[in-house]
Structure formats: structure tokens, C-alpha cells
# Entry
Amino acid sequence: MSTIVETAPRGPTRRRMRVDGWRWAGRIFLVFMLLYTALPMIWMLLTSIKSGFAAMQFPPQWWPEEPTLASYQKLLDPQNSVGQDFLRFFWNSLYVSTATTILSVIVAVPAAYAFSRFRFPGRNFLFFTVLLRNMFPAVIFLVPLFILMRAIGLVNTHGSLILTYLTFGLPLAIWLLKGFYDNIPVQLEQAARIDGATRFQAFILIVMPLSTPGIIATAIYSFIGAWNEYIYAYTFLSKNEQLTLPVGIQRFFSENTTDFPGLMAASFMMSVPVVVLFLVLQRYFVRALTEGAVKH
Amino acid sequence: MAHVVLKDLVKTYGGFKAVNDVSLTVNDGEFVALVGPSGCGKTTTLNLVAGLIPVTSGDIVIGDRVVNDLDPKDRDIAMVFQNYALYPQKSVYKNLAFPLQMRKLPRDEIDRKVKEAARVLDMTHLLERKPRELSGGQQQRVALGRALVRDPAVFLMDEPLSNLDAKLRVQMRSEIKRFHQDLKATIIYVTHDQLEAVTMADKMAVMNGGYLLQYDSPAQVFAHPVNMFVASFIGSPAMSLIPLEASTANGNTALTGAEGWSLELSPLNAQKVAKATSGKVVLGARHSTIRLHKSAVPGSVPARAYTVEPTGDVTFVQALLSGAIVNISVSPNISVAPDEQIWLEFDQERIHLFDGETELALKAG
# Structure
């Protein structure tokens, strides 16, 4: 009896300590990662509510002494020229990104479905050529695409950007969605067709709702890609009123003396749509993960 | 309900013939099982009837219509899939309602039919659940409900029980049989489990390699298998097939085993052996038709016990005879030890004889 009393507490304590050691190492690592990603964002936010003078001080003001929303007011005020430009760039970006997203979903959904369900000659070959584009750095295509756009008269139009972003986004969108369709048992469609649906109805009523998480993931991917793209927008567009946010912010603020609070406020507002998109749609990602876990 | 006729049905994939000249008639209200090992073409045949894959040649008739070129939705069929294929995003109620909605029935009629089907299958309390919240047996029932809610001309079932555990399978087997009797439904049922086919079906179609080998009642198939494949596939434990040499001397025909013993045949069996294309004859016998003796008796042949498997109410002995394994069932109070010398006596009226070259059953007259 006495031996049991003596040994029993030692084993579990030792084991618990080892687990705790690893757990703490993990926590420290996560905190480090969190600081690494969050600190620049926090600094961006803090700088954006400083005055222009406070932002240039050294040693820096770690916490703004006189916080002000002046930069935001300036950027969002349609009355002054800075605000007009910023709002125009914002809408340009929103237009290009939304159009890219909608078109890429419209093309990727049927393409991915066809690659997943139909056996046709050249299927594998086509599927890999779809990916071929993504095997090269984007910059390689800059000049050829510019010449192409000039030839078809699309330079200095938003259409040139939308087309270009589609060539980046579509291959991965198709690849991603095909994976989703592969995981939806073909018997579901067969059952629907026997239950009285046409092939198209079976797709719309049964397969589409099941692939919603995949479609949303694809859409977010396309949107963010288009929203953040810089080099093509910089090359294809030269008229001030057409610029998208990444180019516009950079060009606009470096022309004057660099207004850091203004730059940071603009950057912060540029990140808002992406963050909102993630927050609103993240439950679909979670659902996609859990559903994948229990099916088959 | 309706009858189904398959006429010279062929399905090829490239050069591969998955279904080879299959012809059979399923009468109105009949329960037919398509049975065979995996890859024998039974599921392909069912999918052809369902219209999920196009026919290469031949005709499919449901009721009085040739349905070859009709969409699945226009064939008036219902199908139960092996993995149930319940719509995961829909509740049980909506799963059952879907076929009715597709046929644009009025809402109150849909409601009435769904509730009626739920009542018949005893799952009224499950109507609001999602398929993933149900057990395997309940999912199976919903799949069955979705088929019967529409009152189709033909029910097609593709291994509906193979995903259930053994106990539930036996229970659902009798439920489906009951379902068939109550509805007088025409059912085509695909299974690789010969026991399901034998216990449930009015007729069974034994398939192998894309060919329909035998189409008859389970009793007939059991008693008169057309070839060695059907003989060994139907019945459990499988029929023992023993390769022997036939010889005739002084008007008497005998079969000789590899160990040198010989078994004199009855006149009827001698007639059958006379039809063989060569001297090679295969003797088939089911476990219950062989008697086991501990000492030599007239007409018995010597064998060696190999394994002994007591199951409680019956003991199965496997013995080595002429290079083949022979299954014998004996009363549990007979004790046999492995490697013990035993003697086997065949019931000449109940043995099967096959041509060793063509593998076809030998017939007298």
C-alpha cells in the first residue's frame, strides 16, 4: 500500500510537467508569431491617428499624445482633392476586384465541374495547361501582356486588369473547386436525376449548395489577389482617374512631402474590405473543414 | 408497377465488354436479384436500366415503353444506392419531399405523402434531422423512403445493405422483403452476397464476366447450377468441387481420385459422365449431402481431415480429397481430429457432375 502511495503521484506529475513544457513552448511561439504579424498593423493604426509632426518625432511617441482623426477626415472628404482621389481609387479597386471575382467564379465553377465529372479527350492535358501559367513568375508576362493589351486596345482600361487577374486567379480557382467536386459523391447527382431532376437541375439544386464553401474560398482568393495587385496596375494604367488603390496610394503620397499619417490611414482603410470579407465568410471555411472531416 | 425486359443488352467501354448480351424478363411485382462477384457487370446492368449510362446496343423495356433514350427522370424508376446518396444539406423531410417537388405536386399532397412514408417506415420522429445525424440503419430507411414515396414503376437497389453491420443487415433484409410483399413492387436488386439473393429474391440472375449465366428461382439455381461457377458461388459453405478421372470397364463407369481410389457411379450418373468431352470430370457435392464415416463402408472413399470448425449446432469438417478441399457438415457429437483418416460417402442422387474441360453441368439424356 505504502509503495503505491509513494509512486502514484510521481508518475503523473512528471508526465504533466513534460506536456506543460511543450505547451508553453507552443504558446510562446504563437505569441511571437502574433506579435510579428500584429505589431506592424498596430503601428500602422497608431501612426494614422497621429498628427504629421508627431509621426516624424524621434524617439517616437509610442502612444499618440494628441490622437486625431484628421487624416481619415481628409481622405474621406469628397470636397478636397485628396479625398476625391482616394475615394476614386477605392471605387476603382472595388470595381476591378469585384468584376474579377464574379467572372472567375462564373468561369471556374463549370470548368471545375467538367474536369471533375466528365471524361473527354485531352482532359488531363488541358488540366495541366491550366496550371502552366502559375509555374512562372507573374513578371515574366508583364511585357507580352502589355503588347497584347495594346494590340487589342485595352491599355488604360480596367478591362485589361480584369482580364489579367483572371489569368492569375482562374487556374487556382479551377484546381481548388475541382477538389471540392471530386469529394461530392456522383451518386448524389444520380439520385437527383432519378428523382426527377435534369442534369442541370441536379447541379444547381444539389451540387452547388454543397460546394458553397469551395466557391466562397475561391471568390475570396480571387478578390484578394486582384485587390492587392500592384505591378500590372502600375504598368497598364497611366491616367490618374483610373488608378487602383495600391498604385494610387503610392503615387499620390510620394508626390507631396510624405504624409505618413495619411499614408497609414489609407493603408488601413485599404485592408478593411479584406478583413471584413474574412470575418463575414470565415464560418464557411470552418464548415468546409468540418464537413470534409466526417464525410467518407 | 410494371415489368422490365432486357433484350440483348450490351455495354462496352472502349474494347472492354462490361455487359455482354444480357437478356432477361422481370415480371410485374417480381423481386429479382442480380448477383455475382465484383466486376461481373451487375451494377453496370442496373445503371443501364436506370439510364445513368448509355446503352451500347440492345433494348430496355419498362412497362410497354422502350426507354433506351429516355432520361432517368422520365423512366418512372426509383433507386436506392449503396451509400444511400441522401442529400446532406437537406433534412429527412426535404429528402423525402425532393422527388415529389421535382414532379411539381401540390404542397399539401407532398406533405401528406412524406408523412405517410415516414409512418410506414417508422421514422416520423426523424423528419427534422439531417442525414449526418442518423445512424446507418436510419439512413438506409430514409433512402428506402425516398424511393417509395413516389410510387414508381420499378425499384432499383444497388447493394443497399452492404454498408450495414451484420445484425442490422439481417433485420433490414426481412424489412425489404416485407416491403416487397406489401407493395407488390417490381424490384431489381444488385448484391454480391448470394445469401441476400437466395433469401429475398423470387428469381436470381447469376452474372460473371459480363455474362448472365443462369436466371431462375433460387431453389432451381441451388439445385441445378448450370456450371461450376454458379455451383461454387451459390450456397454457403461453397459446394466442394473435386477433379476426378472417369473410366469405364465391364459396362460400369467409375471416377478415380488422385489417391488411387475409385467410386462406382449409378447408371444415371454414368449416363451423364458419358456426355463429357474428355475423361476429366468434376464431382460437386454440398456439405450436407456427404456422410462422414470413421471406418470404411461400401461406396465410401478415403480422405484426410484437415480442419474442424465447431459452430455449436453443427460442426464443419474440411477434408482433403484428390487435391481438393471438401466441406462436410456433421453432428457436433461426432468428434474428428485434424489429420485423422476418415471415409466419405456421397449421395449419388444429389451429387453434381461437371465437364472438366467446359466446366458446364453434365446432363443425362
Remarks:
- Chain A touches chain B at residues 185, 187-188, 190-198, 201, 206, 209-210, 291, 294-295 (CB under 8 Å).
- Residues 1-12, 292-296 of chain A have pLDDT under 50 and may be disordered.
